[in-house]
């Protein structure tokens, strides 16, 4: 049996970026990544490194927990392998 954990991280990068009136490209330049990285992060298809998460939070001058939220999806589930 293989144990899986269905936890995830949600983010509010889009909301903070729009409130700051920044394009994806502008935010990407400020935090040192590509526009594509910001795009996929906003869509929830990319989990940033801890370093990038801190860069984004610092750029917006908020706590990392204000932008990124850990979501526990319940107990550990078991899958047959």
Automatic annotation (TrEMBL):
Note whether Magnesium occurs among the keywords: no
Lineage top rank: taxon: Bacteria
The record's annotation in Gene3D superfamilies points to: lambda repressor-like DNA-binding domains
Q: Where is the HTH cro/C1-type domain?
A: 13-67
Q: Which SMART domains match?
A: HTH_XRE
Matching Pfam families = HTH_3
Keywords in alphabetical order, please.
DNA-binding
Q: Name one GO molecular function term.
A: DNA binding
Keyword Endoplasmic reticulum in record: no
Which InterPro entries is this protein grouped with?
Cro/C1-type_HTH, Lambda_DNA-bd_dom_sf
- Classification via PANTHER family: DNA-BIDING PHAGE PROTEIN, TRACRIPTIONAL REGULATORY PROTEIN-RELATED-RELATED
- The protein depicted here goes by the name Transcriptional regulator
- Tell me what organism the protein belongs to: Enterococcus florum
